[in-house]
Design a protein that fits this description.
Pfam families: PBP (PF01161). This is YbhB/YbcL family Raf kinase inhibitor-like protein. The protein is mainly beta. It has a single domain (8-154), classed as PEBP-like (Phosphatidylethanolamine-binding Protein), CATH 3.90.280.10. Helix content is 5%, strand content 35%. The chain is built from 1 helix and 10 strands. It has a 7-stranded mixed beta sheet, with helices on one face. A 3-stranded antiparallel beta sheet has the order 1-3-6, with no helix packed on it.
Length: 155
């Protein structure tokens, strides 16, 4: 992996700000739109994870999706399913959202911190959609060209 930070924007949410209600389990629970700013010309695919950094289980995974064809924009409201035809049959793995996006929904009155990470990779990652984030990261480790993160809070 080179050390280039992948710059991206999460539409409706600045780094360090509060999650818009529509992206949460208390709203419409839809995945946000991402605009990729400095994608490497060597990128073949993208992957996105959403983790709850405040959860008792370290970096608790809410969402993991990989094999999105390299692009400068990932549309919002990605539908549930192991395979996502609108994204070149990208795979959604196993997390709090089982083969789907599951936005923040901490216990009432508790503020949790969440992290979106977007990865650019030099290939497709050939693992089952029944894989978890750790399986994806292990297989992707030598293929990650860039990665970047945005932090958000929700209570």
């Amino acid at each position: 992996m080179n050390n280039t930070v992948l710059e991206f924007e999460c539409i409706g949410m600045d780094n360090g700000s509060k999650f818009p209600i529509e992206y949460t389990g208390r709203g419409q629970d839809v995945s946000p739109e991402f605009v990729i700013k400095n994608l490497s010309p060597n990128a073949k695919t993208l992957a996105v994870t959403l983790e709850d950094l405040s959860h008792p289980i370290k970096d608790f995974t809410h969402w993991v999706i990989w094999n999105i064809p390299a692009t400068d924009r990932i549309k919002k409201n990605i539908p549930a399913g192991k395979s996502v035809p609108m994204l070149g049959n990208a795979y959604q793995g196993v997390g709090y959202g089982l083969h789907r996006y599951a936005g923040p929904k901490p216990p009432k009155g508790k503020k949790h911190t969440y992290r979106f990470t977007v990865y650019s990779l030099d290939c497709e990652i050939n693992i089952s959609a029944n894989s978890m984030k750790r399986n994806f990261l292990k297989k992707a480790e030598k293929h990650i060209i860039q990665k970047g993160s945005i932090i958000g809070e929700f209570e």
